[in-house]
Amino acid sequence: MGQNDGGFSKPGLRKVHDVLARHVESGNIPGVVALFSRGDETHVETLGTMRHDGGEPLRRDTIFRMASTSKPVSIAAATVLLDECRLRLDDTVEQWLPELADRQVLRTIGSPVDDTVPARRPITVRDVLTSTFGLGMDMTVIGTPIMNEVFGKGITPNLPEPMPEQDEWMRRLGTLPLMYQPGERWQYQIASDLVGVLVSRVTGQSFESFLRERIFEPLGMKDTGFHVPADQIHRLPPLYAPDPATGEFHVWDEAEGGRHSAPPAFQGGGGGLNSTADDYHAYFRMLLNHGVHEGERILSRPAVELMTTNRLTPEQTAARTALATDNVHISFGQGQHGGWGLGMAVRTYRGDYAPVGQFGWDGGSGTSTYADPVNGITGILLTQLGASVPYSIHLMHDFWTTLYQALDD
């Protein structure tokens, strides 16, 4: 599974525990569930409580809003379709997504939305799966006419109003010009949500039903889905988004009656899943095992390699590199990976303690999920604190820093 079959050292495990405990004891992190493994050795840490002000303790089976760590899981539905030749990477998407036919492209990124030129070519499946189809949430150009329109159309998550059902979402998306030519530039978020629509239209099923049939159920991911059933809602903590100026804790989303307590109108591959540490561990271990789970093949080995190796040219990834290196004060140091595969980051340079080849992603709700084929490790870190303040991001950095020190080689 990896190049080294060692485990974790006892002093290293104590350090992981102590660092996680320090974050919780500081009062900045309500609680944390961490599950990590190497070979046949698995460890779990559960610290803190469901609510910032106390209450029930977090448990191994606590359900969390996975936010953007939905991306590396939801992309598997599309790779199933690649395996079955129901999609091809260089198919144009117009037959399934006619709203994206005959695109216009902004003359410059700051142009008015009606100042456009024709797209040089149609959008392909490859463009969508690699997040290079031409539209995205670009935090470096906030305030431009196109970003105002993107936010104004209600096609991005985390706005006061939830996103509409997928046909209306596509209609709104189709009214916008592209920001860049198809295939020109990596951009965040919208492509991941578009993957869900593409899968739904190709299969004739809802995105969730296809994911459940082909990924969740075969992997035993019984607690993963786009909402939490009423009889399990007690396992979902509130999501906090502290005030960036004062640090005062505010509930952004309650469990009962909140955004994840009922099926959403839009099943967003970019950030809508709820799950547990064990469910995500099963998924990332399957990827480490080249697509096999307990003797059953879920994805082909070439599909997993396609997902978990860098797919971007230096030109395509320039924006991603700029966001990571020039906006550290905004991202709290996230994004130092280099590359991007399908639906997830892939490390292409040694920017911190993790080696080249590690793959996975982080979520703005306080989730971090990666696997490392070099060392054969998987790590799932879950909390209920949004990234309006740096605390959960610092927790992620410290978890991975100490986990790599704990390797017993």
Fold and architecture overview:
- This protein has 409 residues and is of the alpha+beta class.
- The chain has twelve helices and 16 strands.
- The chain has helices spanning 10-25, 71-83, 125-129, 145-152, 166-174, 190-203, 207-219, 277-288, 301-308, 318-326, 328-331, 391-405; strands spanning 31-38, 41-51, 54-57, 64-65, 104-106, 116-118, 239-240, 251-253, 274-275, 292-293, 296-297, 338-340, 345-347, 359-363, 367-372, 377-383.
The parts where pLDDT drops under 50 for at least 5 residues are: 1-5
Taken as a percent bin, the fraction of beta residues is 15-25%
Rounded to the nearest angstrom, the radius of gyration is 20 Å
The main sheet orders its strands as: 3-2-1-16-15-14-13-12
**End-to-end separation:** 16 Å
Taken in chain order, the helices and strands follow as HEEEEHEEHHHHHEEEHEEHHHEEEEEH
Supply database-style keywords:
409 residues; 12 helices; 16% strand; disordered N terminus
What is the topological layout?
Layout: H1 10-25, E1 31-38, E2 41-51, E3 54-57, E4 64-65, H2 71-83, E5 104-106, E6 116-118, H3 125-129, H4 145-152, H5 166-174, H6 190-203, H7 207-219, E7 239-240, E8 251-253, E9 274-275, H8 277-288, E10 292-293, E11 296-297, H9 301-308, H10 318-326, H11 328-331, E12 338-340, E13 345-347, E14 359-363, E15 367-372, E16 377-383, H12 391-405
Antiparallel strand pairs: 1-2, 1-16, 2-3, 4-9, 5-6, 7-8, 10-11, 12-13, 13-14, 14-15, 15-16
Helix pairs in contact: 1-12, 2-6, 2-7
